[in-house]
Amino acid sequence: MKDTSHHDERIAEMKFFSVYPHYVTKIEKKGRTKEELHQVIEWLTGYNESKLKELIESKVTFKTFFSGATLNPNVHLIKGVICGYRVEEITNTLTQQVRYLDKLVDELAKGRKMEKIIRL
Q1: Which residues does 119 contact at the CB level (< 8 Å), separation at least 6?
Q2: How far apart are CA 58 and CA 68, in angstroms?
Q3: Angle at 48 (CA atoms; ends 14, 85), nearest 5 degrees
Q4: Residue 119 neighbours by CB distance under 10 Å
Q5: Domains, the chain, ranges and CATH?
Q6: For residues 1 and 12, which has the higher predicted lDDT (pLDDT)?
Q7: DSSP 14
Q8: Taking CA 109 as the corner, what is the angle to CA 7 and CA 25, rounded to the nearest 5 degrees?
Q9: Has residue 7 got a pLDDT over 80?
Q10: Where residue 4 falls among pLDDT bands split at 50, 70, 90?
């Protein structure tokens, strides 16, 4: 397996607020809503609307964003490839959590039903 430590460090220091607008643009271009995006983020992290807004305004890193999250117990059901990596095989916990979020946003943008995205 190749060394991804530099990649992992870069992800940890990325600011959530700078990536969030890209999530919104991606899903809205495909006819989904910001409310649906927030539902997906809340399912994954436990963050409600006001906490999410606070984190965005505070310009936190992904490291901080996920350090305060209460991950859904069903995250292990998120499987598949995102950004060239199989999410269930990523060994760095934070990188895996960020890729879980990327995968869920991708599924939302692809028109997958919400019940499937949030693994009901």
Answers
A1: 72, 74, 77, 78
A2: 13
A3: 40
A4: 14
A5: 5-111 (1.10.8.290)
A6: 12
A7: S
A8: 75
A9: yes
A10: low
> Do β-strands 85-86 and 81-82 pair in parallel, antiparallel, or remain unpaired?
antiparallel
HEC-encoded secondary structure of 27-95: HHHCCCCHHHHHHHHHHHHCCCHHHHHHHHHCCCEHHHHHHCCCCCCCHHHCCCEECCEEHHHCCCHHH
pLDDT in tens, 13-42: 999 999 999 999 999 999 999 999 999 999
Q: What is the largest CA-CA distance in the chain?
A: 40
Q: Is 28 exposed, middle or buried (0-12, 13-18, 19+ CB in 10 A)?
A: middle
pLDDT at 1: 45
Q: Please determine, for residue 5, whether its predicted confidence score (pLDDT) is greater than 80.
A: no
Angstrom distance (rounded) from CA 100 to CA 73: 13
CA–CA separation, 60 vs 87, rounded Å? 23
Q: Residue 75 pairs with which residues in a beta bridge? A: none
Residue-wise pLDDT tens digits, 70-103: 999 999 999 999 988 899 999 999 999 999 999 9
